[in-house]
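<goal> How does this chain fold?
<sample>
Here is the protein in question

***
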Amino acid sequence: DKVVKVSRPLAVPASRTLNPVVNVQVGSHVSGNGSKRYVYYNSNGKAGQVIAEIYPSIVKAAITQAQGDLQSAQAGLELAKVNAGRMEDLVKKQTSSQSELDSAVATLHQAQANVMIKQGALDRAKVDLDHCTITSPIDGTVISRSVDVGQTVAASLSAPIIFTIANDLAKMQIDTNVAEADVGVIEKDQQVDFTVDAFPNRTFHGQVVQVR
């Protein structure tokens, strides 16, 4: 006689929130007041679509200042070039010392580096201006909104979250913690039945896709 083992469903106590598989938080790289918002809760958007704007007055002022600093640095570079050239001629005529020429050349190199620094500051300010326009990184649905029009966005230490966008609400997952006493019977590709508080009279079906 053969012994037939009949498997029965296992009940593993675990609870967690149901979340979209792809869930992207959209933040802001710049600080300022939110001037416009183009999407709301449950809005569907496409990747690259403009979803909000930060009032750019502070960033535009930074660009103006950076442009002035760059022009000042360029003027200093022109003067340093003239002084270095004049000093070189004086050394050739033996009316000036080599140390004075070395000092003039060093000043020229410092002026060149200063122009590069000011150019970098201007480029960064222009990038910040582009970041005042916030676009969606993925196709999806807005499921969370943290900033209203006129509210200040402070991005000094980290990018504040403005929207949360779910790629596909038809694809959901549960990341849950399982006790050590039960995790040994959990395997990849197992079929799972679970319930959701919002629908207490329905049983949903899923599958284990990963054990971490």
Q: What stands out?
A: The longest strand covers residues 199-207. The CA atoms of residues 37 and 145 lie 10 Å apart. Helices lie at 57-92, 98-131, 180-183. Residues 57-92 form the longest helix (36 residues).
